[in-house]
Structure of GNAT family N-acetyltransferase:
Amino acid sequence: MSRLEIRVATRRDRVALTALLCGLSAESAYQRFQSAIGGHPSRAVVDGLLPEPPRGVALVGLVDGVLVAHGMWARAGDVAELGILVADGCQRQGFGSEIATALLADLAARGIERVEVYTGSGNRAVPRMVARQAPGAARTVDGPSVSWTFPVEARRVVAA
């Protein structure tokens, strides 16, 4: 497995993030956004994936300098919502879990105490990741959507 370098995303990552989104299969895009984003996402979609503190934080994961993963948290009232995306060819290699660990460490460092994660009921990766990261998470099913809520615990940042 190649080593994933994780760093904070900046507006300079727009082009690489757009390329990542354009390279997604329709299924992967739907699993992340629960909506079609089209062949070329709008600037508003890309900018929405690059929140800045205190509203949120975005991280990117690179392998050999190529952006292959994106993760973010955004404030939603008294919780933070997490979203993670991994390029089709890089899925099931642990990159999503590495990004999740780094996001949770960032939340803990900022004193944010609760997390929510949403997905469609057909998504298989997110339930596995939640089970590893927060085995006691409260699960709620609402039609085709599933959400998990769990406390943020102090975590060690993944070495990048």
